[in-house]
Amino acid sequence: MRSLEDDLELARSLEPSELADAIESIGFECTRCGACCTSHDGDPHTATVFPDEVRALLAADVDSPTDGSGNGPPEDDSSSGSTATVREWRDVARPMPYGLREIEDESEPDGGGIDSDDATSATRLEGETFEWALQTDACGDCVFYAEDEAGVGACLAHEDRPLICRTYPFSVVLGDDESTALGQPMGETVDEEGVVRAHECEGLGRDISREDAETLARTLKERAIRELEEAIAVRDGYQPVDPGSGEVVVHDSEGAKRIDGTVREK
């Protein structure tokens, strides 16, 4: 079995022109349908976001996202005379739900549990998990997704969106090994060309310019490298913790954190 370091070298050796050939062959044009940004069959939208990407979204000059934290919408910083939107970590990111368990919410959680997306209001989540997901609203949609009066979707943080959003609906496999498919987005694989995999999206099969295919290919390679660098950092820095009752601990490349993004003291 190859190591993460071996896969990282394979990712660094990916040839953008070959990735662009594959993307151009499959074809893609975003129709702004919003399917990749919204909930599906009752499951909330789940897209991985890394710590520096969260900070970029916190600093981004975007319209106020819809509230997903349960703490009310972000407010203007009127005390400083600024009209810039004040956002907190939990306005942008939530713990990746995988590995967390549901508990009955009988009292105030110790360390900050979170409400389950698909459970009753008396149920909360606790435990350890790895990485962050973009925050969602009460409907399970990404908080940065919005539609105009005609129902056309748009990302409020388009220029600062995470790598997985920039490269949807594509992913890559390394060394012709399907088990090494990196950061696969939501949706089944429906097409492939070389090491490139295409996932469910109504925009597939449409014409794409060579320039756009090359831009997407470079970003896809960047994402493959970044995901492996992040995985290595998480592995090397991981230290088991014993979460308190109702507490959620998130392990990312910067260590163990609380749900507000602050470092959890040992």
The backbone outline, from C-alpha atoms, is globular
> What's the helix-strand series?
HHEHEEHEEEEEEEHEEEHEE
Low-confidence stretches: 67-84, 117-121
User: How many H/I helices?
Assistant: 6
Instruction: Classify the helix fraction into a percent range.
Output: 10-25%
Which oligomeric state applies? Answer: single chain
In percent, how much strand structure appears in the residues? 15-25%
Give me the secondary-structure topology.
Elements: H1 4-12, H2 16-26, E1 48-49, H3 51-59, E2 75-76, E3 85-86, H4 89-92, E4 93-95, E5 101-104, E6 114-115, E7 123-130, E8 132-134, E9 145-147, E10 153-155, H5 163-166, E11 170-172, E12 189-193, E13 196-199, H6 210-237, E14 248-252, E15 255-257
Parallel strand pairs: 7-14
Antiparallel strand pairs: 1-8, 2-3, 4-8, 5-7, 6-7, 9-10, 11-13, 12-13, 14-15
Brief descriptors of the model:
YkgJ family cysteine cluster protein; 266 residues; 24% helix; three-stranded antiparallel β-sheet; Puta_zinc/iron-chelating_dom; alpha+beta; five-stranded mixed β-sheet
In words, what does this structure look like?
With 266 residues, the protein is α+β, with helices and mostly antiparallel strands. The protein has one domain (4-257). 24% of the residues lie in helices and 20% in strands. It contains six helices and 15 strands. It has helices spanning 4-12, 16-26, 51-59, 89-92, 163-166, 210-237; strands at residues 48-49, 75-76, 85-86, 93-95, 101-104, 114-115, 123-130, 132-134, 145-147, 153-155, 170-172, 189-193, 196-199, 248-252, 255-257. The strands form five sheets. Strands 5, 6, 7, 14 and 15 form a five-stranded mixed beta sheet that branches. The protein has a three-stranded antiparallel beta sheet with strand order 1-8-4. Strand 6 (114-115) and strand 7 form a beta hairpin. Helix 1 (4-12) packs antiparallel against helix 6 (210-237) and helix 2 (16-26) crosses helix 6 (210-237). The longest helix has 28 residues, at 210-237. Mean pLDDT is 85; it is low at 67-84 and 117-121. Residues 249-266 have a biased composition (Basic and acidic residues). Residues 62-120, 237-266 are annotated as: Disordered. InterPro entries: Puta_zinc/iron-chelating_dom (IPR005358). This is YkgJ family cysteine cluster protein.
